[in-house]
Amino acid sequence: MQESHHPRLFRNHTPSLSVEANPYPRWLTNLGLLLFAFFFICFLWEWFTIGVLADKEKTKEYLFGSEVMMNEGGANYASPEIYAKSALISAVLFCLPVSLLFALAVRKKTTAYRLLAFASILLFGLLRNSIDL
Description:
It is a single chain. This protein is mainly α. The chain has one domain (26-130). It has five helices and no strands. It has helices at residues 26-52, 56-62, 67-73, 80-108, 111-130. Helix 1 (26-52) runs antiparallel to helix 4 and helix 4 (80-108) packs antiparallel against helix 5. It starts with 25 loop residues before the first helix and ends with a helix. The mean pLDDT is 81.
């Protein structure tokens, strides 16, 4: 009689060469977390220096209200107050949630969280561009 190969016999067997089934590079999620955390800090710094400290030198550099800046940056450069408000909104409502989703994706290491993190960039980007400040 021929022996049958029962699945329980191979339960503890580990292959000598393990190949990852998911071709997704994990460094991409780590990079996304670092980038959006960096953007969060940059936007908060812009809000703090322009809105809270009201740094005169930085305000002069930005040429708020000029035609050149309004053409390049849009309505956010109409005044220092509007620019500071825009920077705070970008930091808190865009960069912080995306950073948190990337942190979850790094911690959980599942495809679902990775897709959610990358989809959030598109979603929040579309929402951010549709908001008039």
